[in-house]
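Form 12-C: Joint structure prediction
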Amino acid sequence: MTNNGPNGPACHPRPDEYEPTPSSAPLGLRGQGGLLVAAAPLAGAIGVFGLIFGAAADVQMDIVLAVGMSAFIFSGTLQFAILGLLASSAGVAAIVLTALALNTRHLVLGAVLRPRVEGSPMRRAFLAWFLLDESFGLAVASGRRATFVLFASGIVFFTAWVLGTLLGALGARLVEVEGLAAALFPVLFVGLTAITVRRRDGVIRALAAAALVLVAGSAVPELHAFVPIIASLAVALPERRGA
Amino acid sequence: MSWELIAVLAAITYGSRIAALVLLPSMPRDIRRVLDRMPPALFAGLAAHSLVIPGVGLVETPVLAATAGAIVVSPLRSLPICLLAGIAAYFVWGMIA
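Section 2 - Result
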């Protein structure tokens, strides 16, 4: 790990001022144009998800409610889960419990991002609206520009999600790519893993977390929603020898 | 679905987002080091998580093919390339199978 600050290698933080490891700026994240290059395909994927959500929600609610869900909840994972619960006639308690379970990962994302995001509590409260898996991944990979990346990518993703929902609810269909939507989640997460991993031990931790999730997720389906957080915490705890 | 339920779900979701980013106090260095190591593991875990259907098993093979395509190019450390490779693998698998 290097701690080369803006003043060069001699500028080390004090032990109590731990700085997150700056990224080596992976391809697609150099400059504001680079941010757009990285965010554009994600926004496209989010727009397609939104369209599929809008089309699926059309069966269970009117257009205004569907778009309102996307505008106010702004969480694809949770919204698709809610649709599944509504389709199986689940009650309000089950929906609320699902929301609590699925949102626990925001606590981890926020805690990881907290040292990287500057500004007053009010400013951070505003930025929290844009805390998604995708914007988090880009923000972490961008190192010291996390605040700007979270804001800029968050606005783009929010627009894509709400617009996609509106188009889907209005009847737009992308039949040929709807099957692809299921593949986009793991592909997206593999990409986010790739841009946030920095060292060989990070690769090992990522592989260990994936293996743990595959085993534990199959063995204990009741804990399915929590397994990624538990697994990532478990593999992050051991300190690298000599670190 | 009602506006009241949407309001509750929005409050839970935004509350979870704001909790750590705003309300969390400054953490000790050791905890921040652990948190700093978590993102790749968390995303890899989420990737694996989306490949498992609880009580059923693994997802369909085109999804696995897309994931494999993204993994193959992941050493390039580029999100756009991973997405393109995954999508390409998905369609190539569809043509072969």
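Section 3 - Comments
The CA atoms of residues 28 and 34 of chain A lie 5 Å apart. Chain A has two domains: 31-188, 197-243.
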